[in-house]
Amino acid sequence: MKVNRRNIWLSTRDYVMIILGTMLYSFGFTAFILPEKVVIGGVTGIGTLVYFVSGIPVGLTQYVLNLILLAFAYRVVGKQFVFKTLFGATLMSLWIGIMQPLFPDGIIEAQQPFMNITVGGLLCGLGLGFVFIHNGSTGGTDIVAAMVSKKTNVSIGRTMIYVDFCIISSSYLITHNIDTIVYGLLVLLLVSFMTDYLINTNRQAVQFIIFSHHWEAIATAINNEAHRGCTVLDGLGWYTKQEVKLILVVCRKIESVNVYRIIKSIDPKAFITQGNVNGVYGQGFDELKLKMRPKHKEETDE
Q1: Whole-number pLDDT of residue 1
Q2: Buried/exposed code over 247-272 (b: 16+ C-beta within 10 A; e: otherwise)
Q3: pLDDT, tens only, 53-66
Q4: Half-sphere exposure of residue 132: CA atoms within 13 angstroms, side-chain side
Q5: Are 164 and 170 a contacting pair, CB within 8 Å?
Q6: In terms of Cα–Cα distance, which of 92, 94, 184 is closest to 139?
Q7: What does the alpha-carbon distance between residue 1 and residue 7 come to, in Å, rounded to a whole number?
Q8: Contact residues for 211 (Cβ-Cβ < 8 A; gap 6+)
Q9: Low-confidence ranges of the chain (pLDDT < 50)
């Protein structure tokens, strides 16, 4: 990567957001979840179990486990990711170590576990989302999720659900309390939802089908002003038995308002349909991550 002002700014912004994300996660965990004695997923959950049994601070156990996982992740995700993960994991353990003594009884009092769990789960998910968006990781099962995401189209949040579910369920062997397991699963769902929501916000896409007599002007304007490609299709209006032109446009959801404005400025009477699109890959969108079946020798010889 070339060293210039833009790259320095992007790298600096990433590290600043990782700092803020880990701080937000640690605050949600120590101020809302840990006081309710709820075990969540990942190495944070394992650290919580160790803390309940031996009194060893959560941050210390968490950091040791992260170092072990990072040794396995080096070859798969690369040196840069490992460095950012080490940076994020160090910050996470540091923030948790600082904040844990500050909130021994939590912030919300009067025995309201559901409210504490809900607020804590949303804050943790928000923090993780910020970290992942800016190419970082907090370690733990995040490392496993990032490795899976590098090779497949399975979302980070979904991978975290699979791994963390096993950790939360196994906590029953120590706590023998069904309520805390239910709350732990609730945290898992909230964190995964918020993480995926933030990560996928900029990836949401929509598809337009536009019917208009001014199709040529609309398609040209979308190319030039919205900087999106258009495909013009031939159609037949069955009621009028007249040939029509259809414009097919795929764009980011945040760009849809601009497309509407372009259409309305040219033809206010245009007939428009819009639908959400799940999974748009190729030029201008996401990269398709898929393991290809290796070719056999017979196929390569043909």
Answers
A1: 46
A2: bebbbbeebbebbeebbeebbeebeb
A3: 888 999 999 999 88
A4: 31
A5: no
A6: 92
A7: 8
A8: 235, 244, 245, 246, 270, 271, 272
A9: 1
